[in-house]
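Tutorial, part two.
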Amino acid sequence: MRRFWKEVSLEPTTFGHAVRLDARPVKTPTGNMLALPTRKMADAVVAEWQAVEKTVNPVAMPITGFANAAIDRIAPDRAGFAAAIAAYGETDLFCYRAAAGEALAERQALIWDHWLVWAQKRYGISFVIVEGIMHQPQPTSTLETLRTVVAARGTFELAAMAKLAHLSGSLVATLAVVERAGTAEEIWDAACLDELWQEALWGADHWAQKNRSDRAAEFMAAVRFLDLLSPDT
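Running the prediction step on this input gives:
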């Protein structure tokens, strides 16, 4: 889409703060009204549309993208999306370790155990630590609790959580971000522990670093989206 508008504005509606381009309502890809639940998020979306110079570039508009996903994809099937996110708890990255005695396993225990202990205390659950990559089931009660926890989150929160879980491979990491249990940077570094370990051993690869940098940008955009959901003051 080429830029045709001169002014971006907001209009209060029963669905939230609706974005307007020269008084025309902005629509999501499936034709729904683009309306944001908080003024902070609405202002961020307005800033993205104002920053368009000639042609709309979705990569440069992550907040708009998350909002579109919440409205078009998640709202019609909240339960299904919540279940898909909760499923990351079945194979959570933080539970899968290198062989006992290896230096990497010690590093994983040092970093990852912290987040598992946090989740255990926060939700009253337990985890099975797995040596290697072969799947082992987590306790049924743990998975049921995690499904309930995720299902309780709002539609817009789930949009960010889906991205966080996909990028980190960890539901624990995702919930730690949502609950503000640590900084986004330290949680992301924990999720990248294996990559960083291999890089320290064998040296950096330009394309691997670029890939991680791109994923980090997506991760932080999802974190920002969550922050914009906090109540307006």
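The mean pLDDT is 95. In part three we will examine how such features are distributed along the chain.
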